[in-house]
Specification:
It contains three helices and four strands, in the order E-H-E-E-H-H-E. It is of the alpha+beta class. The chain has a single domain, classed as Alpha-Beta Plaits. A hairpin with a 6-residue loop joins strand 2 and strand 3.
């Protein structure tokens, strides 16, 4: 099966590690971002997940129409405020990676 790269849609994986005992605080604050973000025109998917093995690991799986709409999202006041000063006090670390979806060919 030949794979084709989707050249427009962007997938973002944002991984957070909560300070032990602060998992609920992190989840509560990330939930606040969901309602605002899902109203953005370029947001196709914005789901929050928690590791079954490590409660402190919380991950957003995001899909955006394109890089432009993702960049616009990152500039929204509520996103800027969340990351203001680096890590929020209840976050030990975080990592954000950007991807292109690989789609099977239609042949």
């Amino acid at each position: 099966m030949k794979l084709l790269k989707n050249e427009t849609q962007l997938v973002c994986i944002a991984r957070f590690s909560a300070i032990p005992g602060e998992e609920e605080q992190l989840i509560e604050n990330l939930h606040k971002l969901i309602a605002l973000t899902t109203q953005e025109g370029g947001c196709l998917r914005y789901e929050l997940n928690q590791s079954m093995d490590k409660r402190e690991e919380i991950t957003f799986i995001e899909k955006w129409y394109d890089k432009k709409t993702f960049d616009e999202h990152c500039a929204k006041p509520y996103i800027v405020e969340f990351f203001k000063g680096g890590n929020p006090e209840y976050v030990k670390s975080f990592d954000v990676s950007l991807h292109k979806e690989l789609l099977p060919s239609v042949n």
